[in-house]
């Protein structure tokens, strides 16, 4: 018998090629934004200036000192910028780090956020915030940080370097895979996750052409939205806990860490996660799901193992306890020190994920 609780999240989603040109100004009008704090890194600076041109007179200040994993000092500077500008809305244009900075402002000011994502991170549809203080990453959930409106424009991802696009898309695949067994999974999150994988895989198969192929970009960004939505309601499972600990402890790049670790967690859980396995296989169109997921990044610039990201083999033992301490109790395969150690050793070396299966 099926039993579940589904806590739906609010949010207005506007999706379409060119939507930042055709729809963003109207969305800001709907929210009566008069004094906008624009958050965008220098890399996305020109793009942000171009798309803000129609309402430049309402951009009260721009904050560009975004850093990965939102250091608390950066959050404070962004909040100060919002206060000094007397901002009534935060507009973020960029990847997960930029969205995360906007969320940090919303967390203490309560200002509404309009998010324009330029990667496949998915943070824009979650109520989760994250901040880093002296190398330790803290996350929390607060509905104040959930963007009021998200404008998805696949045209903006055309400039993503191919290797980053692949890693970011695999980060989104991880959101979908994990949504099948995360603590608050439900038939709703599973349906969204399955369709998310389908779109992401279609986009990944055409990734070589995604700079010029608008259908591929659309598939990837739609898949990323579905992935973020599934993750937002289902929560974090073993995979996210592992990546969270590794990212915080060794300052590893977010998307690449997810892309490397995913096949190993999938191999670890698959033997005890029948429904997830069947649905992932259906979405992938293949029954050898661990190999299939690993092959999504093969030859497309995803580093082979965590060792290639600069983590040392001796580091593995230093994080095993931290991971088992926060791993969900109802993970499909029981999470043991030995199990996590073996998983990390394989992921570090980039060896066959099948060896992780137990
Ligand atoms: P990122 O935002 O750090 O961006 C990575 C790089 O890509 C940056 O150098 C950026 O300037 C560049 N970039 C972004 N868009 C581009 C584009 N269209 N063209 C060219 N370059 C572009 O990385 P990310 O992977 O998007 O986000 C990672 C962060 O998001 C992590 O801190 C992670 O914890 C967080 N995150 C949070 C949640 C949540 O729910 N709170 C969910 C997912 C990710």
From TrEMBL:
It comes from the Bacteria. CDD domains: MAR. Residues 166-348 form the Fe-containing alcohol dehydrogenase-like C-terminal domain. Residues 10-154 form the Alcohol dehydrogenase iron-type/glycerol dehydrogenase GldA domain. Keywords: NAD, Oxidoreductase. InterPro entries: ADH_Fe/GldA, ADH_Fe_C, Alcohol_dehydrogenase_Fe, MAR. SUPFAM superfamilies: Dehydroquinate synthase-like. GO terms for molecular function: alcohol dehydrogenase (NAD+) activity; maleylacetate reductase activity; metal ion binding. Belongs to the iron-containing alcohol dehydrogenase family. PANTHER family: ALCOHOL DEHYDROGENASE, ALCOHOL DEHYDROGENASE 4. This is Maleylacetate reductase. It comes from Nocardia puris.
